[in-house]
Amino acid sequence: MNSIIKLNNVSYSYNDNGLITPVLQDLDLIIDQGESVAILGQSGCGKSTLLNLIGGMSTPDKGEVLINNIDITELNENKTTEIRSKNLGFVYQFHHLLKDFTALDNVAMPLLIQGYSKTESMQKSVEILDSIGLSQRIDHLPAQLSGGERQRVAIARALITNPICLLADEPTGNLDAKNAIDVLDLMIKLNHNKNSALVVVTHDEKIAKKMQRVLVMEGGKLNEC
Q1: Residue 192: pLDDT above 70?
Q2: Among 2, 73, 78, 146, which one is least packed by beta carbons within 10 Å?
Q3: How open is the CA angle 204-99-150, to the nearest 5 degrees?
Q4: Measured between alpha carbons, how far is 204 from 201 in angstroms, rounded to an integer?
Q5: φ/ψ bin of 67: left (φ > 0), alpha (ψ from -120 to 50), beta (otherwise)
Q6: Is 101 helix (H, G, I), strand (E, B) or coil?
Q7: What 3-state class would DSSP assign to 188?
Q8: Is the pLDDT of residue 220 over 90?
Q9: Residues 103 and 129: beta-carbon distance below 8 Å
Q10: Which residue spans within the chain are E strands per DSSP?
Q11: DSSP sequence for 78-99
Q12: pTM
């Protein structure tokens, strides 16, 4: 199995005016291509911090963070951004869609930023929105969509560049029970179809049980559940 994400001996602390608060301590993690992983833990234990480190939005105090065998801790900000945009997709609790743009425009945005033509970007966006049952909603603004529909658009946007790994931080936390299950099932389906990895941070054990692996964040480290 091809390991696409590796964290080796990673530690991270918050520094608040000289007050050092350890968050992650000598943490190791391997994510393989195609697998789905849930990360459980209490609020404030460092789950979101872990995703930020994997995505290169934060830098560890020590240790390695490898994406496709490239240690992003050794790269400058521009190169890290390039690696992140080509390899990772992000879904958060709040959809963060651009309110003045349609569903189609929101999904196409990452491709346009990467330099794809408008024609190709729109065509690919129509295809992925159709695949998740939103073909009739492509011209709607976020305010015209339901909460579940907005989150599905956010998932489509995250996957439009065919990332090797989708990182989801409490992606169903702002949805009702039915929409939460629908959104989770959609991510699992797309994860399987695209053979990409899926990492879901959650506090919901029902959601975690749908993943192939469940890890628990305790004492700054990850333990198999």
Answers
A1: yes
A2: 78
A3: 35
A4: 9
A5: beta
A6: coil
A7: helix
A8: no
A9: yes
A10: 3-16, 19-32, 36-40, 62-67, 70-71, 88-92, 165-169, 197-201, 213-218, 221-224
A11: HHHHHHHHHHEEEEESS----T
A12: 0.86
Q: Show the CA angle centred on residue 137, arms to residues 133 and 138, nearest 5°.
A: 100
| Mean pLDDT of the chain, nearest integer | 88
* Residue with token string 């990452």: 110
What per-residue confidence (pLDDT) applies to 1? 61
Domains of the chain and any CATH numbers: 3-224 (3.40.50.300)
Query: For position 9, what pLDDT does the model report?
Result: 94
Query: How many residues are there in the chain?
Result: 225
Query: Which residues are within 8 A (CB) of 46 and not within 5 positions of it... i.e. 6 or more apart?
Result: 12, 23, 24, 217, 220
- C-alpha 30/C-alpha 146 separation (Å) is 36
